[in-house]
Task: inverse folding
């Protein structure tokens, strides 16, 4: 029904995978913010297919166009509409799939919900391509955060069961993530992931993984208890990314296995600032930021579109049948999800930051 | 800032742990729904401390009182305000803690956010006691769901690292959960959990765990893609429960380690209805319900209040100091969280159900 | 469905005329605000029936009780729940009216909407008594405004067609309004209004009128163009007061008869501040405050409950019938509406003020 | 901050008068609705300058383009983005006005609010041109209403103080409004209005007026008491149209001068349906529709841009100065406001209709 995120920094998405465009309307951006199309473009470029091995060989030239809200290179305070025009796509393969929902895809519930009227071409509104609008909005959010020296950094910590096996430094994440095709700072792990991806590709299969995101220099006290908890708002936004199946903060699911004495983060004073010695909380307590780095991890399932034959049902005949999803699809979506996770986190943080203290 | 949940079935919480009361205003309940105070009371009773071993020996007699919105035993369509009056509590121990934030608690960010004006007694608004309002609202939500034969069932699947180690049947969960003091259907595991809890108690420590929740008979197509995804709304609500650090649907974090061919749930037809052979999706795809059971797991960290000495900082002197959190506290909150998880899930589902199809 | 007003300073009403209580939950009140029950009480007392002649002789002792959100005499930042308990009311007269909707009342559409389940006693949720919650919330809003030296002043400018016939000074309004039983600063007009009211009372009839409200010292730039225009938000709030049929700003409907050269307010500089020589705009242009006094006028229809016989329909037999509305009813509600109008305006202004500049 | 209207049928505007485009994102349109660009275009054409005499001679060819949410000629249930590209406009005259706010315009509060960063060309976001998005959205809303046989009809009842002086029949309004250049069904009055407009034009002045809007065949029970009252939501939407200074329902401000016995609408039964003999309520009681025609009147001030010299202040020097607003401006905006009023009313009614009964 509603597809807006945020209360003060608010984004509204529109568009379809094989329609005219994908886009976003951003409301609540303060006036006077310098907006350079190339900065937004740079963020969009981060989610482009990065390497032949793990990703789709489609040619995507996602050029952002700003339609409103920017004047003389600065935000005016008015809603900012940004679009990326779609290139002509071949929608023929989707005609075949119209009556045979792909396992793991939104096809079947969408068919029920929209009574068959939805745009099924390329996944329509359910396509991860809609995240283009989120990334564009996130570029603005990041700029708002940057003015407060808040940084949002995501990176891949696991693909196909292969984890990075160590905690990289902030500097490492900042420097290496986008230099790596897999958005993974650990070269050894990257190599193994790469092999795993190639193997899955050969098998006509796909792989999932985990993206970790940090937000640095957050002030303490962002977010509210009860229903506008910072972690709750972040989780909400992150679960809106296609293929996300789990979200955890700090020690996350591991915290459920720790004792209170292990999990509680002791306080100390460092350079006149109250900090914690550990950060199992992941920077959020009682729905509010603690001032320590925010740490959130997001689990992505493997892409549903695989070349292997799968069992489905023909919606017209209501008989079981088999499908093979043709076309060029990502073997592993996780590296491309990194800038999306960053953008979602940035949007939520900008919203809370602009809402300000109570 | 805002503490409301939901758009059509909307709940607004108020109250404090050691204040006059805790309560809730429920808006959007359809008129004509039979409301029996004893049914709401029965839900509230489920979150009472159940056994000496794992929980606080405080006497709590949470009697719900309906202040508005019900006439001749039925909802009128007007807002329903329900309160539970607090018994006189001893707030003395909290005076000591005022300037020494407890590790793992909301104390420190609350102090920053509210500039020292928050009610720190018994955790104030940050106390899990606020969930009384959620459980009361959930009782109404469950009744709305029951009219569509939708059931919401939660149970404990892990405490202190001890898991139930098997997938219990729906019937088992329905029958056994609330007969078990630990809200765990597996007797063997329960016994081990019980020992673990007693051990933690002796050590002045605390334990976390995992609650699983199922929703049965949901129609396909509830929820929307983009920003009102059913899973995103559920995750948002669940992260608003104190101490939650992770949420996952279906295979969840495990899905990140599966191949597409393993994770995709094949479709088939059963009694003229389209179903999936597996349910790794946990009943939700593309932000919409699939018609299969909704499965969500919620990770709770161990309670922060422990008897063991912990390091903190005195906010006045800005010097490190040590505290021991006195008073009677839950060693393990997880069993008491079971009806809260059910209530949150029920509220979100009732909201989406009443919003109806597009 | 939703009964909340405001985005940042948000109020949620509950209660019924003859139910347990009427009340409000106020969210978004900044922490540290001094709250004195007697100040809130003083506002509530302003809407009490003031004189035998024009108002109901019912005994109302509306004592406000603060249930949450206030600690040590100050707001904590948590939701503030306030209730006024209802005295035992005689609901017998309403049984007769159950199937015969009173002309001009909400009875008939309520019967359709709520399918007969609504609480019809004393008007239930449709009663102006619900405005008690608004006035209580308004008392907090006024305090937020007072910190910025913003004043909200309403007064009666017309009753039963008798207008005050002159523009009183701000000082006069401030000093005299609440000293007048009719909340009208002009003594001569008051006298005529009083006679008109007595006449209507003798005839078993009722009278409407117009309330004017000013807000002083507003900064320029509050409110937004498009859909959060300050005037639009104010109009929305004011039309939520029972019996309001018209709202106009500045010259209002008269502006429709003016030429641009007459209506445009010329700018000048006064004490280094930009002001306008006239204020036909009523302090709002393009949805934003201009810094000049906000001026809004609210038209109230006469109370629907009159002793004269009226034609209605029996909902069971669907046959026309006649009713006389018995009981003690206000002949003219307008003087009692003055603090309600102030409260609504204060709530909207506090909301916009806390939202702050873009 | 937020520029969305509606909860279920939600519209978000963007664009600027002299920017790239004006547009709207419509959310909540049910899937399967037939969308013909020419129907939307027909609505847009109604707000085109209709006659040389009263309106701007600018050439406007507002061709709507649907960017998303429509597939195979039908709505998909996804957000519908529509844009109208702006023709190249001459923004030179606005450079002169940058530092001299035009009396009656949003210039000054906008300058304060946006700290000078707003797009001042052609009024930027404050321009009535933004209403193009409302009219486009209204075309969809009207179609939703038409399926329930609900009609929304607006017409001019007063310009420059000249009223139509009689109550035209519904049929007359339906037939004649858009055949009249002034959108006024009374030919005699139209002629006088026309002369008045020509006179104002000669004087370099402008005129305001009043638009009346009716909605027919509404079911009883739409809207809610308290804060989602139908009249309050309509008033909110209507005050968001530039230049609106007053809104009244049914007898409106006149009701304030009536006695209860005159104003109350007696009930009767007609063809088995409950109706009222009069309609002073304007079809709304207690915030809910009564099933009688909804009647709302909207007062427009005269356009602020006039050729006559006016006094203002130079924002840089803070000295009084004089301006003449050059360029081609509407002498009277009221006829062009007719389809905008219809569209706003249609959007609010569609929203309430889709929200459905409680």
Result:
């Amino acid at each position: 029904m509603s597809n807006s995120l945020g209360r003060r920094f608010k984004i509204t998405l529109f568009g379809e995978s094989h329609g005219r465009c994908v886009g976003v309307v951003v409301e609540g951006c303060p006036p006077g913010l310098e907006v350079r199309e190339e900065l937004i473009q740079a963020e969009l470029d981060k989610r482009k297919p990065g390497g032949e091995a793990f990703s789709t060989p489609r040619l995507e030239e996602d050029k952002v166009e700003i339609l409103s809200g920017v004047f003389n290179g600065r935000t005016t305070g008015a809603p900012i509409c940004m679009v990326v025009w779609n290139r002509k796509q071949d929608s023929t393969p989707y005609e075949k799939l119209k009556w045979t929902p792909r396992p793991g895809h939104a096809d079947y519930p969408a068919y029920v919900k929209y009574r068959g009227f939805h745009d099924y071409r390329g996944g329509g509104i359910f396509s991860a391509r809609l995240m283009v609008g989120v990334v564009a909005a996130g570029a603005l959010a990041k700029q708002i955060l940057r003015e407060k020296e808040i940084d949002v950094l995501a990176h891949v910590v696991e693909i196909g069961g292969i984890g990075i096996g160590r905690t990289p430094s902030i500097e490492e994440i900042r420097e290496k993530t986008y230099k790596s095709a897999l958005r993974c700072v650990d070269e050894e792990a990257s190599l193994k992931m790469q092999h795993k991806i190639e193997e899955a590709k050969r098998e006509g299969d796909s792989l999932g993984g985990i993206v970790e995101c940090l937000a640095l220099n957050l002030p303490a006290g962002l977010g509210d208890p009860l229903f506008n908890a910072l972690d709750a708002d972040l989780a909400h936004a992150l679960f809106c990314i296609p293929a996300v199946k789990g979200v955890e903060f700090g020690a996350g699911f591991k915290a459920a296995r720790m004792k209170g004495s292990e999990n509680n983060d002791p306080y100390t004073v460092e350079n006149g600032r109250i900090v914690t010695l550990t950060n199992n909380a992941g920077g959020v307590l009682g729905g509010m930021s603690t001032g320590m780095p925010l740490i959130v991890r997001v689990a992505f399932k493997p892409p549903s579109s695989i070349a292997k034959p799968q069992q489905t049902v023909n919606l017209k005949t209501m008989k079981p049948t088999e499908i093979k999803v043709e076309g060029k699809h990502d073997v592993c979506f996780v590296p491309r999800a990194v800038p999306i996770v960053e953008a979602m986190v940035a949007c939520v943080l900008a919203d809370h930051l602009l809402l300000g203290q109570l």
Residues 334-355 of chain B form the longest helix (22 residues). Chain B is about 25% helix and 25% strand. The domain at 4-355 of chain B is CATH 3.60.150.10 (Chorismate synthase, AroC fold). The radius of gyration of chain B is 21 Å.
